[in-house]
Amino acid sequence: MSTSASSPAAAAIAPMIAMEGVEKWYGTFKALTDINLTVRPGEKIVLCGPSGSGKSTLIRCINHLETYEKGRIVVDGVLLDNNPKTIDVVRREVGMVFQQFNLFPHLTVLQNCTLAPMRSRGLARDAAEATARRLLGRVKILDQADKYPAQLSGGQQQRVAIARALCMEPKAMLFDEPTSALDPEMVKEVLDTMIGLAKDGMTMICVTHEMGFARQVADRVIFMSEGAIVEEGPPAEFFQNPRHQRTKKFLGEILPRY
Amino acid sequence: MSYTFDFTPVINGFPTLLLGCIGTLWLALSGMTLAIVIGIGGVVLRDSHIKPLRWLVIAFVELIRNTPFLVQIYFIFFALPFMGIRLNPTPTAIIALGVNGGAYAIEIIRGGVQSINKGQLEAGRALGLRKGQVFRLIVLKPALRAIFPSLASQFILLTLTTSIASAVAAYELTSVAKLIENESFRSFEVYGTITIMYLVMSWMMMNFLNFMSRRYLSYPVK
Ligand SMILES: Nc1ncnc2c1ncn2[C@@H]1O[C@H](COP(=O)(O)OP(=O)(O)O)[C@@H](O)[C@H]1O
Ligand SMILES: [Mg+2]
Description:
Largest sheet of chain A: 6 strands, mixed
Helix content of chain B: over 70%
CATH architecture of chain B: Orthogonal Bundle
Number of helices of chain A: 10
Structural class of chain B: mainly alpha
Oligomer: heterodimer
Bound molecules: adenosine-5'-diphosphate, magnesium ion
Strand content of chain B: under 5%
CATH class of chain B: Mainly Alpha
């Protein structure tokens, strides 16, 4: 908030997600160290870093799939504490897409998309189905609405998972390596879906090593290592002039692939 | 050995035996229904965050699985009246079968629940569903599907165990057969006949359970 005097309007906008001094322990293992992260409405963040650096843990704290021991997390003005009511409020506002899709195998694509809106938001079936069909159309999979997850390819399943999350009409979306479990030929269809979502102004935090996606979509790229945010910046700056040794090493390892 | 078979008593008593079969199937289906309810309810309580409830379920399962069914049914029929609970033979049998089957069902269903990928629970929770909803709407069906073969064989066993209810003279096939045998002394004919009847009922029950599974528990998997 310090230098925002030049644009008072921006200063007035409350952050969508604010993490302040967040610390997370798994038993005696410190998984997150002093995480400070503010995400403005509509901002797109790409989170990268070596395996085990705490990327999943960080985004899972935001919808309280993980508890945190220190600091505070505020989502759309709601302080995320251990109160189950607050947690449910935040979860309805924040969608999540998992590496392994996690579609419900016993429900059709359409039912996957209407379950939570009906049971959690209390929408009537008609309204939930109308929303689901609209969003399945948006991820270009409406023709598969009556199929079961096992009858779809990985790329299709992940697009359904994105639609399912969108059906809750979330204000922000969290992606945890959404393309890592996919065959290479299916990565693009999922990334294109995410790019579309970004263009429509969704607030997004994406854990991904798809640096092409980061360049195209991210407002900021954040690099994590050993549970801490080491470095962050706009993609052009981040990729051209990484400041920290660990960032350079990481980029050196992953960039030749792109 | 020059035993001459005489099926006259069996033939004369055939309508009664068929009624006995209906009694048996009634006990079996009611017992199964109760067992399913106890099984699912028990699993929920077994993993509840209230410790005494968990202990209660563990104690219940241990008690039932480590004592004879005959003693359990006698307890309900002969001992509960001293506590003011007096039940007729058929309700006694249904409760005994349901409670006994339920204890086994708890362990079986719990195995199914534990086999469900944690990602399923997380996806449900991330969508804002409450814990109970996640269990009911997301976990239960795949869990039951996963353990269906074990549960089905437990229920076939339950169907056959109904014959022990003859010990309290519940209306079922073995009780009816005993009466006919007592009057005619045609043990071989009577018990031979009901053996086949039990075989047919087991087979019917298996078909019924498979039908239910296809109807309610099936969906495409990889
Ligand atoms: N449930 C858990 N129990 C104990 N340690 C865990 C658990 N989940 C993650 N960790 C540890 O926390 C660290 C960060 O994990 P994670 O956030 O999954 O990393 P990333 O997503 O960056 O690969 C790792 O060292 C991992 O082993
Ligand atoms: Mg991870």
